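Subject: Sanity check before I submit

Could someone independently write out the structure tokens for this chain? I want to compare against mine line by line before I put it in a report. The sequence has 164 residues.
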Amino acid sequence: MNNSIQPGDGYTVNNFGKAASLSIDSQAIQFYPKIPLTVQNGAKSDKVYIVPGTVNQLIPTVSGTYIDALPRPTITVSASGYIILRVVRVAGQPFPNTPTIYWSATIPSDTTSYGHFNLASVTVTGTAATGLGLSINNYRSPYIGAVSVGRQKFGGVATYHWWA
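---
Independent answer below. Compare away.
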């Protein structure tokens, strides 16, 4: 009887007399799942979205919509800049509140009320007439499980630490 299994991409078939073995080849490249709070290209050329995740168990918002909503909220990017995570300091609490994500032309400075983390830089090429191209450089690594958003003041003023 002839073997009806044929080799193909990722599969190797070995015949041994009247028997056959099928080997499934391992992939050469390891792909990591999408990392929470990373910036991805949106469906339109001038849009980006954020992979859902939490900041101290709080889901961030984009323009008032939670990032895990459907349809997913997007950020319109018309010029090169940064995608920023902002958290609010709550008096008497060591953890941040009200995480929001937005685009900014510059990286904002931390204040006694707000802490910021630069999630990604976005470089825009082209124009609206010719079609925009967005190049995203995420600052998160698949090996880092958390980021820290902090503001430290020394002297007579308290030190604040915010974690995301």
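---
OP: Matches mine. For the report I'm noting this point. The chain has one domain: 39-163.
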